[in-house]
């Protein structure tokens, strides 16, 4: 009985480590962190940014697994939602940029004039969706 439980724990932890490593390498490979450092002219702090992303992932998992209550959670949830939405949006844009998705798509449907409006619409839609999601407590 104990052997099965120990084996399941080892497999679960190993799988989690592999998936987390893959996710963080994808984030680094897409260049999201280096783009942030480049745009803010703080390239010398890139290792700190990478450590912050890894620490955020680790702490997020610990809080989720052990159901740790965060004091002031009522006002931190919207802040987390906004920051998480910004990060996911930048991640999606970096992936799309890497795949050259937008230039090909925009040339095909011939809407180059409306690109700023499309990007603003996507950002507002994600923001309102996150606001509704967090305000309803889903």
What does this structure look like?
- This protein is mainly alpha-helical.
- The chain has helices at residues 2-30, 32-39, 46-66, 73-98, 101-109, 115-136.
- It has six helices and no strands.
- The longest helix has 29 residues, at 2-30.
- The chain is globular and about 65 Å long.
- The two termini are 37 Å apart.
- The relative contact order is 0.07.
- The model has no long low-confidence stretch (mean pLDDT 80).
Order of helices and strands: HHHHHH
Number of domains: 2
Computed CA radius of gyration, to the nearest angstrom:
19 Å
Query: How is the biggest beta sheet arranged?
Result: none
Helix content: over 70%
Shape: globular
Structural class: mainly alpha
Strand fraction: under 5%
Mean pLDDT: 80
Structure annotation, total helices: 6
Can you tell me the residue ranges where pLDDT is under 50 for at least 5 consecutive residues? Answer: none
Our measurement of the CA-to-CA distance between the termini, rounded to an integer number of angstroms, reads: 37 Å
> How many strand elements?
0
Pfam families: SpoVAB (PF13782)
Protein name: Stage V sporulation protein AB
Organism: Dorea phocaeensis
Transmembrane segments: 6-34, 46-68, 80-102, 114-134
